[in-house]
Design a protein that fits this description.
The chain is mostly helical. About 75% of the residues lie in helices and about 0% in strands. The chain has two domains: about 1-40; about 45-89, no CATH class. It is flat, with a radius of gyration of 17 Å.
């Protein structure tokens, strides 16, 4: 595929992924509210604790992303996947 078409496909996939993440966050928020309305206690960690969790799992997530990317024949690994994953948390 020519480079200009590759760019269009990659940009479109990224846009679709971003949209999907936004939609999933909405579904998660809705599900959380439903659970709360049924008496389930929901615990949300603060930003400091999230930072600690991200730091603790960084190596494992990056290694998984590298392996997954390689198995799929892709070369577009994120420099730091946790920066991407952490945005929705």
């Amino acid at each position: 595929m020519p480079p200009d078409l590759q760019k269009i496909v990659i940009d479109s996939a990224r846009e679709a992924c971003n949209q999907q993440q936004k939609e999933m966050k909405g579904y998660d928020e809705n599900a959380t509210e439903i659970l709360k309305s049924k008496g389930v206690k929901v615990w949300k960690i603060d930003a400091k604790e999230m930072t600690r969790w991200i730091a603790a799992t960084r190596k494992v997530v990056i290694e998984h992303e590298k392996k997954s990317t390689k198995e799929q024949g892709r070369t577009d690994i994120h420099a730091d996947p946790l920066q991407v994953f952490g945005k929705g948390l």
